[in-house]
């Protein structure tokens, strides 16, 4: 096994278990992928394996361009096409996480974007979490729609489905998914209390930039 692939397998399985522990997915839903830098490979979670028993060796390494399985015995996630589409379109992204967290999925079901109403959400996303056009799960169309709505931001909602969070590594994608869910909860509660006040475009830009600079120094 390639040493770098082994390292990324460990990171992906840790992030996947944490995603489950945080209640961002139920049972076997959701999926995680990470680019193996300088190899043209991507490590993805397998299809249908319970996160509680998932091991690093259950993950699958695939070719970024062809999607062909290079290493691993199990079938890759059914959302492989979407993960690859995002990683091909965003060279700055090395980690992609897809969750079905409840409040964010509620926004996706209502086709309502989550506006930047709190600072941490603005920092990790860099604007509203937009809703991608509906497409059936597992299709290339879902990936294309997700890429189109994601633009250069940190997260996107898949209509009537869930969330995708991205980052320079998989732990950052996990953080993004967690903050998007928290932001969706705050948005829903703020709407019950009154009218949520959006952060200005300039403030969102400033928050995003300073967050990125800080992240780069770690
Ligand atoms: Zn899904």
TrEMBL record:
InterPro entries: Aldolase_class_II_sugar_metab, Aldolase_II/adducin_N, Aldolase_II/adducin_N_sf
Record flagged with keyword Metal-binding: yes
Database matches in SUPFAM superfamilies: AraD/HMP-PK domain-like (SSF53639)
Signal peptide: none
Record's keyword terms, sorted: Lyase, Metal-binding
Lyase keyword on record: yes
Top-rank lineage group of the source organism: Bacteria
SMART domains, sorted: Aldolase_II (SM01007)
Domain called Class II aldolase/adducin N-terminal: residue spans: 10-188
PANTHER family reported for this sequence: 3-OXO-TETRONATE 4-PHOSPHATE DECARBOXYLASE-RELATED, FUCULOSE PHOSPHATE ALDOLASE
The protein, known as: Class II aldolase/adducin family protein
Species of the source: Effusibacillus consociatus
Source organism phylogeny: Bacteria, Bacillati, Bacillota, Bacilli, Bacillales
């Amino acid at each position: 096994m390639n040493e770098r692939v082994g390292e990324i397998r460990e990171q992906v399985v840790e992030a996947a278990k944490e995603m489950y522990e945080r209640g961002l997915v139920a049972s076997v839903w959701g999926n995680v992928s990470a680019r193996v830098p300088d190899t043209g490979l991507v490590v993805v979670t397998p299809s249908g394996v319970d996160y509680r028993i998932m091991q690093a060796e259950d993950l699958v390494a695939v070719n970024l361009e062809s999607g062909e399985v290079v290493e691993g015995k199990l079938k890759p996630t059914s959302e492989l096409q979407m993960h690859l589409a995002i990683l091909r379109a965003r060279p700055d992204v090395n980690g992609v996480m897809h969750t079905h967290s409840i409040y964010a999925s509620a926004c996706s079901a209502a086709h309502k974007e989550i506006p930047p109403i709190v600072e941490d959400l603005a920092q990790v996303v860099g604007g509203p979490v937009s809703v991608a056009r509906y497409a059936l799960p597992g299709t290339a169309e879902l990936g294309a729609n997700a890429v189109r709505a994601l633009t250069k931001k940190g997260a996107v909602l898949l209509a009537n489905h869930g969330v995708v969070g991205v980052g320079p590594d998989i732990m950052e994608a996990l953080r993004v998914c967690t903050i998007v869910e928290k932001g969706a909860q705050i948005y829903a509660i703020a709407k019950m209390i009154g009218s949520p006040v959006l952060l200005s475009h300039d403030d969102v830009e400033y928050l995003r930039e300073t967050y990125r600079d800080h992240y780069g120094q770690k």
